[in-house]
Amino acid sequence: MAGRKQFDTDTALDQAMRVFWQRGYADASLDALGSATGLGRGSLYGAFGNKDALFRQCLDRYASLYGARYEQALAAHPDDPVRAIEDFFEVVLDRIADPSVPTGCLIAQSAAQALTLKEENSARVRALLDAQHQRVRAALAGSSADARTLDELASFVVAVNQSLAVLSRAGTPDAELRSIARIACAKVADTLDRPASENTGRRRSTPEAD
Predict the structure, then answer these.
(1) Where the record puts its DNA-binding region(s) (predicted)?
(2) Which among 138, 134, 148, 145 has a CA at the least distance from the CA of 206?
(3) Could you tell me the domains of the chain?
């Protein structure tokens, strides 16, 4: 339409996503978002709604860009869950090491600020973490371990993944991050190699099971 500035929605979302990723929700001002996207406040509102709506769309954009890579890695070895987890961490570490994107993870960054987010945004972050847990849990399903062990391992893998993102923002060297991932993979392999009865016995010996 004549007189209306045209822009690519995905490009604008990517630019806004980087602002939220670098600064976090609270410090991503409308001026910073406008400067990154090249859009005035009115155009931002017209295209994406308010800041909260834009934030949710950026979360979904991030999940679609990176979630597909994680899912592909986790699904590549249906008969070898340890290899699947190794490939998953390799994708995560490659993203962390990529100098073309901000450090850390938008979801981890947002989860750390969950208490300051509006309920709908906090729920969206939680849903994305749950989706990651489900993908990891599905990758472990080929194991003979019992369901509770696999649920716990999936939670462990997601926790390590989020920790890697936080550590990377603090400047932890790549070699140290990769060492953490290797230890996590070894833990997964060790747990899956144990007889189911041994895993059950370990849980019963913990204070929570008493």
Answers:
(1) 29-48
(2) 148
(3) 55-193 (1.10.357.10)
Q: Measuring CA to CA, how many Å separate 33 from each of 10, 13, 80?
A: 14, 10, 43
Cα–Cα dist 43/175, whole Å: 44
Q: What was the pLDDT predicted at 210?
A: 45
Q: Would you call 164 helix, strand, or coil by DSSP? A: helix
- 99 phi/psi in degrees, rounded to 5: -70, -10
Tokens 């406008």 correspond to what residue?
34
Handedness of CA 133, 134, 136, 140 (dihedral sign): positive
CA distance 59 to 14: 10
Tell me how far apart the alpha carbons of residues 28 and 107 are, in angstroms, rounded to a whole number: 15
For the four alpha carbons of 12, 13, 15 and 16, in that order, the dihedral sign comes to positive
Q: Which residues of the chain register pLDDT less than 50?
A: 1-4, 210
Residue 66 neighbours by CB under 8 Å, 6+ apart: 95
Of 60, 49, 50, 58, the residue nearest 20 (C-alpha)? 58
Give tens-digit pLDDT for 2-57: 444 567 888 999 999 999 999 999 999 999 999 999 998 888 888 899 999 999 99
Q: CA-to-CA distance for 160 and 28, rounded, in angstroms?
A: 27
